[in-house]
Amino acid sequence: MAVRGSCITFSLENAKRRDNLEKRRQAYTIRNMGLLATDINYIKIFRLSEELIAQLEEDISPFLTPAKRRGGISNRNKILCTLAFFASGSYQKILGENVRTYISQASASRAIRTVVDAINQPDIIKKYIRFPVNASEREILKQKFYEKFKIPGTIGCIDGTLISMVRPKEHEERFYCRKGYHARNAVIINDPDLNIMHVDVTFGGATHDSFIFNNSYIKTHLEQLNNTGETVYLLGDSGFPLRPYMMIPCSNPEPGSREELYNNLHASARNTAERTIGILKGRFRCLLVHRVLHYDPEMVGKIIKACCVLHNICNRAGVPPVELPSYLQRQEDTFLQILQQGSQNSISDLDSGRLARSRLINRLWRGQNRQQ
């Protein structure tokens, strides 16, 4: 019995040592990511606060497989590894020499794929990225846009951005953009508070914004609303087609004209699209053009959508934006000086769009004159 008791004691002590070793291993892993136990450092390294990370883990844990063996990477550390990669765009930033002892690059890559797949589950996407589907939601957006920018009927702003990636193994021509690199073209629609309501990553960098919009369910939805008589607009740049539900700037308006007034108000409101994309890329620098995502096109699309989900989580929680250093902003601007894309307009659609825009311009002009 004494021998049996000694064996049990030894086994318990051995198990305790293994547990302590595992706790130290997990702690070393996180510490070597640079983590200190403050929300400021969580946000600096992972872009989410500790509370938001816990919320994310709760959301996606049904879609994550727990570690199969003792010493495997926990779900929390898979999430931290993924967030650190999104924030920096570099494996080297999250895999220092000490960390590599515990998380190899191959393990980190698998962890990132697992978490990205979990965030891309339809239930998660629908929870955080949602285009207004009923009249009451649209009216709230119209009121917010009008209060901020004085353009009635607006529910969102739209813009496209290129996310660079390595050369794909198949259909390279679909992803080679006019700026001379391979990319996904992400078309994003935002609300006045810089939340992302819709992101389309279906097409490669060779595809124009106008084509992506013309082949989206958003266009069909807006057409249906317009046909019922509802006034509803997206605001886009001249790369998008002029439609009764898509307002783009007037070309070369006369100084002091009603068209110039319209353009000024349009530019002020549509600046939210540029700011939304700028904040998205500032937070998650894996999306910056010079980072170049080393994944296949499908995975690149999933990473973009995952970052959009996380952007909305941060934005709605009031997490402050992360400003890009000036040298990174210059690099981004240099690569992304995209030539104006010719939009695809049929004559009837173009005439309808011109008429709708003319009515809006006149309405804005009358409103301006009443205020004087």
User: What count of helical segments does DSSP give?
Assistant: 15
| Mean pLDDT over the full residue set | 85
* Rg, nearest Å: 25 Å
Shape: elongated
Which sheet architecture does the biggest sheet show? 5 strands, mixed
Please trace the helix and strand order, writing H or E for each element. HHHHHHHHHEEEHHEEHHHH
Distance between the termini: 99 Å
Order of strands across the widest beta sheet? 3-2-1-4-5
**Quaternary structure annotation:** single chain
Number of strands: 5
Whole-number tally of structural domains: 2
Secondary-structure content class: alpha/beta
What proportion of the residues form beta strands (DSSP E)?
5-15%
Q: Please bin the fraction of helical residues.
A: 55-70%
Low-confidence stretches: 96-101, 338-342
Describe this structure in words.
The protein has 372 residues and is an alpha/beta fold. The protein has 2 domains: 20-119; 133-371, no CATH class. Helices cover 55% and strands 8% of the residues. The chain is built from 15 helices and 5 strands. The protein has a 5-stranded mixed β-sheet with strand order 3-2-1-4-5. A hairpin with a 5-residue loop joins β2 and β3 (196-200). The N and C termini lie far apart (99 Å).
Defining traits:
15 helices; 2 domains; 8% strand; 55% helix
Describe the SSE topology.
Blueprint: H1 2-31, H2 39-46, H3 50-60, H4 75-88, H5 91-94, H6 97-100, H7 105-119, H8 122-128, H9 135-149, E1 154-164, E2 183-190, E3 196-200, H10 209-214, H11 217-227, E4 233-235, E5 246-247, H12 258-283, H13 297-316, H14 326-335, H15 347-371
Parallel strand pairs: 1-4, 4-5
Antiparallel strand pairs: 1-2, 2-3
